[in-house]
Amino acid sequence: MVIQTSRKKAPGISGKSQVLFAVVFTARYLDLFTNYISLYNTCMKVVYIACSFTTVWMIYSKFKATYDGNHDTFRVEFLVIPTAILAFLVNHDFTPLEILWTFSIYLESVAILPQLFMVSKTGEAETITSHYLFALGVYRTLYLFNWIWRYHFEGFFDLIAIVAGLVQTVLYCDFFYLYITKVLKGKKLSLPA
């Protein structure tokens, strides 16, 4: 099967958001070296980390010519530094791995902001980018249902994960509205003037 190179592009994708996701999964899964749960769990953690870094490599190297760095200008230090401080101050257990896990939860809740900022800066998004953002938003929304399920059936409650998930879902709400009112009706996602 031959794939046309015209489909191999990275326009409209925020490389900064992808770097943040790579940091998220790396910080979250550093326990690979200390806690063995199962082969499946270990493999999935490695896959998440590998896919995250592969995506970053593809954006900044392989598809560099189509990456829109001029619009991907969000200052990620405004996300990384506050979430790191918050993780240091508010966590379940003051240990290095727990602080890193908490940092990853906080950072994941805002890691999509460079992507949303890029869409707002350009005023529109390609259909495939819109579908990608919608899938990420649905993933986080379903994650909230996971926490409700776990609380109801297992009695497990993680306030840090729930609050971070709520923050991330709220950040997607405006995008969800635009996606439903435009993209699902066959129009290109463009922001109101």
Automatic annotation (TrEMBL):
The keyword Lipid metabolism does not apply. Its main location: membrane. Pfam families: ER_lumen_recept (PF00810). GO terms for cellular component: COPI-coated vesicle membrane; endoplasmic reticulum membrane; Golgi membrane. The chain crosses the membrane at residues 46-63, 100-119, 131-149, 155-180. It is found in: Cytoplasmic vesicle, COPI-coated vesicle membrane; Endoplasmic reticulum membrane; Golgi apparatus membrane. PROSITE patterns: ER_LUMEN_RECEPTOR_1, ER_LUMEN_RECEPTOR_2. Keywords: Cytoplasmic vesicle, Endoplasmic reticulum, ER-Golgi transport, Membrane, Protein transport, Receptor, Transmembrane, Transmembrane helix, Transport. It is a multi-pass membrane protein. InterPro entries: ER_ret_rcpt. One of its GO terms (molecular function) is ER retention sequence binding. GO terms for biological process: protein retention in ER lumen; protein transport; vesicle-mediated transport. The keyword Nucleus does not apply. Belongs to the ERD2 family. This is ER lumen protein-retaining receptor. It comes from Bos taurus.
